[in-house]
Specification:
- The complex is a heterodimer of chains A (about 300) and B (about 90).
- With about 300 residues, chain A is an alpha/beta fold.
- In chain A, about 40% of the residues lie in helices and about 15% in strands.
- Chain A is built from 12 helices and 9 strands.
- Chain B has about 90 residues and is of the alpha+beta class.
- Chain B has one domain: Alpha-Beta Plaits (2-Layer Sandwich).
- Chain B is built from 2 helices and 5 strands; from the N terminus they run ββαββαβ.
- The chains are: A alpha/beta (about 300), B alpha+beta (about 90).
- At the A-B interface, helix 1, helix 2, strand 2 and helix 10 of A face strand 1, helix 1 and helix 2 of B.
- Strand 2 of chain A pairs parallel with strand 1 of chain B, so a sheet runs across the interface.
- The structure holds thiamine diphosphate, iron/sulfur cluster (3 copies) and magnesium ion.
- Thiamine diphosphate binds next to helix 3 and helix 5 of chain A.
- The site of thiamine diphosphate has 18 residues of chain A, from helix 3 and helix 5.
Chain lengths: ~300, ~90
């Protein structure tokens, strides 16, 4: 089925009104992911914007129309390992076991439990929505915040010029776990995202699947609320956020032969407004190098 | 509350906020310009745009936060943002 028909016909399983900001990329991705997954799903959302926005519910009300659990910031993957093992033992492989976790819960706090579950090949789909920081607690840096990002813990001033370290590149780290399925996705390329979530769910019936989603955050990144899709699109078109998938070891990379300059993306975001032309050139170099590496890996 | 500790899908119901009240600008669809492509529905973070079996799309205002994504992404500029009035 055409992806637009699929989304039109599938039920929105998220509460009609949740407190995510206007134009939140994560809210968009959560709704679309669950429209693909359907009702036969158990979701786990660790502390972060999506849990905090009311998606796990309050006062004995649910934020989703399916079971949702809030584990700790550190243990989403191990928590779901237990859940999936129970369902496999009860001979219920039909139930989709899915995590929807922020980058802090994925790349920092929850990293060891995630790595362990991936290595054990637990039958679940782990989705990271990457807004490049601890947004729910006030925009602190995380290990996936891009170099140069202005965050509340990497401010711009006399002593510091935004984040000085490079971003930890989770998609590749997860690909090197040699799991069933790893992919990156962007809400700007919705057909691709729908396809990848479908594949990820199928792969989670055989083993561990991981999808890393680029998730623009108008409030934390400083862009207009209507620019969310444009920001995501420019991230893909500039190779700032390359789209690829690794299916049982087989690579597929969406290669932009004529990428737009990364400055086209950076100029949209206030978190990068302090960058000098030199800083931007450095980021461009990082982006080009990573793309070269991905090209080599996908050609191998 | 009797099932306080067993909440498969909410003991009481679904937690819902009145997000429609956040809006300062309201998206308005100009039907004569709309080609029924469905992209506004695809990109609405709130799920406020729905389509029927004839692929006719409509904006619901109960929860729409007024972000303006639908207006910006519409390929034919069939959605305009209009300031909400205080009545
Ligand atoms: C161990 C631990 N430390 C700190 C917190 C406080 N905390 C709650 S949400 C959050 C931010 C999580 O960031 P991320 O996973 O990236 O999700 P986002 O808020 O960006 O959506 C933090 C630090 C916590 N819940 N647990
Ligand atoms: S802070 Fe960012 S990620 Fe969190 S709800 Fe707001 S827009 Fe979404
Ligand atoms: S995006 Fe524009 S043309 Fe397409 S259905 Fe929506 S209003 Fe109509
Ligand atoms: S303004 Fe935003 S929330 Fe309202 S219908 Fe358009 S995309 Fe959806
Ligand atoms: Mg985050």
């Amino acid at each position: 089925m055409n992806y637009i028909d699929l989304i039109r016909q599938s039920e929105d399983l998220v509460t009609a009104g949740m407190s995510a900001c206007q134009g939140c990329g994560a809210e968009l991705c959560l709704r679309r992911v669950l429209q693909v997954a359907g009702r036969n799903t158990i979701l786990s959302i660790p502390p972060g914007c999506m849990a905090g926005a009311g998606v796990v519910g309050w006062n004995f009300d649910n934020g989703l129309k399916i079971p949702v659990h809030i584990p700790l910031l550190d243990n989403t993957a191990s928590f779901l390992s237990g859940v999936t093992n129970m369902y496999q033992r009860k001979n219920r492989p039909d139930v989709n076991i899915i995590a929807f976790a922020g980058d802090g819960a994925t790349a920092d706090c929850g990293f060891q439990s995630l790595s362990g579950a991936a290595e054990r090949g637990e039958k679940l789909l782990y989705i990271c929505y990457d807004n490049e920081g601890y947004m729910n607690t006030g925009f602190q840096r995380s290990s996936t915040s891009s170099k140069g990002s202005r965050t509340s813990t990497t401010p711009v001033g006399k002593v510091q010029d935004g984040k000085s370290q490079n971003q930890k590149y989770m998609p590749l780290i997860m690909a090197m776990h040699n799991v069933e399925y790893v992919a990156t996705a962007s809400p700007s390329n919705m057909k691709d995202m729908v396809d990848k979530v479908t594949k990820g769910i199928q792969a989670s019936k055989k083993g561990f699947a991981y999808i890393h989603i680029f998730s623009p955050c108008p409030t934390g990144w400083g862009h207009e609320t209507d620019q969310t899709i444009e920001v995501a699109r420019k991230a893909v078109k500039s190779n700032f956020f390359p789209l690829f998938e690794v299916e049982q070891g087989k690579w597929k990379l969406l290669d932009n032969k004529n990428p737009i300059p990364v400055s086209d993306l950076l100029n949209l975001l206030r978190k990068f407004s302090h960058l000098s032309p030199d800083d931007i050139a450095q980021i461009q170099e990082l982006v080009d190098k990573r793309m070269d590496l991905l090209r080599k890996l996908s050609a191998a | 509350m009797s099932k306080k500790f067993i909440t498969p899908v909410g003991d009481e119901g679904i937690y819902t906020l009145d997000t429609g009240s956040w809006r300062t600008f309201k998206p308005v669809m100009l039907k004569e310009k709309c080609t029924n492509c469905g992209l506004c529905m695809i990109f609405c973070p709130v799920g406020s745009i729905t389509g029927d079996e004839n692929k006719i799309y409509e904006i619901g205002y109960q929860y729409c936060k007024g972000c303006g994504i639908c207006a910006r992404e519409c390929p034919t500029k069939a959605i305009i943002m209009v300031r909400e009035s205080i009545e």
